[in-house]
Amino acid sequence: MGFAGLAVGAAMAGLKPICEFMTFNFSMQAIDQVINSAAKSHYMSAGSVKVPIVFRGPNGAAAGVAAQHSQCFAAWYGHCPGLKVVSPYSSEDCRGLLKAAIRDPNPVVVLENELMYGLSFPVSDEALSEDFIVEIGKAKIEREGKHITLVSHSRTVGFCLEAAEQLAAEGVSCEVINLRSIRPIDSDCIEKSIMKTNHLVTVEGGWPMFGVGAEICAQIMEGQAFDYLDAPAVRVTGADVPMPYAKVLEDGALPQVKDIVLSVRKTLHIHNDATQRV
């Protein structure tokens, strides 16, 4: 709470602080500064007080750290007007979104993932340039498909890509969307994909109640893509319980590739290992 408040005050005074939480679980101690001070001051001051700050750090479940250190804050901070919230998946996402967040005049929450810090991704020459950024509010289609749309963010994007590879062997073509940005969310990209595939599965590591997937489903139901759905949208989420400590229970509480595969089969009415829809 102390250094978050200090950073918010520094931003109000004209600096551009980057406030790092060792884990976003600790941001619960500073949430009053993040929301009541950083997110609301520009609106409450009629635009006279700007708070150009970045809050960054690992988000979501790590491994073996139990309930108090295993939460996804995408829905928490995505709920709050005044904040921008991004959630990178690849190295390109991390570089481009962090640079965009630093250059943005608004408070931005950058939700990284601790379990992905050691992973390597191919990076283009363009992404290594000084001027490269990833626009906040724009999703990326990681894999094109025609039968079903998988929408995810952060680590579970990789799970969706693995599931899509497995399902391709069964003749199912999955389109995988990497949200990149939670708030604002790229509803247009999701809608266009659904109009092509006619099916939707959302995937996230957080809890199901009032989550990112729930918001996507609500926006689709209220928007023009709803009439294009040939089946109800399905959510794949973490279990609605505090994170267990035991590894076998922890694995069961988090979405896995098999859960995505089963949800796709359910949505497309594919029986077990059959290769054709019925």
Automatic annotation (TrEMBL):
EC nos: 1.2.4.1
According to its UniProt record, this protein's enzyme class is oxidoreductase
Q: What is the recorded name of this protein?
A: Pyruvate dehydrogenase E1 component subunit beta
Tell me the superkingdom of the source. Answer: Eukaryota
Start and end of every Transketolase-like pyrimidine-binding domain? 1-119
What catalytic reaction does the record list?
N(6)-[(R)-lipoyl]-L-lysyl-[protein] + pyruvate + H(+) = N(6)-[(R)-S(8)-acetyldihydrolipoyl]-L-lysyl-[protein] + CO2
Q: Which residues form a coiled coil?
A: none
CDD domains named among the record's database cross-references? TPP_PYR_E1-PDHc-beta_like
| Keywords, in A-Z order | Oxidoreductase, Pyruvate, Thiamine pyrophosphate
Main function: The pyruvate dehydrogenase complex catalyzes the overall conversion of pyruvate to acetyl-CoA and CO2.
Subunit structure comment from the entry: Heterotetramer of two PDHA1 and two PDHB subunits. The heterotetramer interacts with DLAT, and is part of the multimeric pyruvate dehydrogenase complex that contains multiple copies of pyruvate dehydrogenase (E1), dihydrolipoamide acetyltransferase (DLAT, E2) and lipoamide dehydrogenase (DLD, E3). These subunits are bound to an inner core composed of about 48 DLAT and 12 PDHX molecules. Interacts with DLAT.
Identify the taxonomic lineage of the organism of origin: Eukaryota, Metazoa, Chordata, Tunicata, Ascidiacea
Essential cofactor(s): thiamine diphosphate
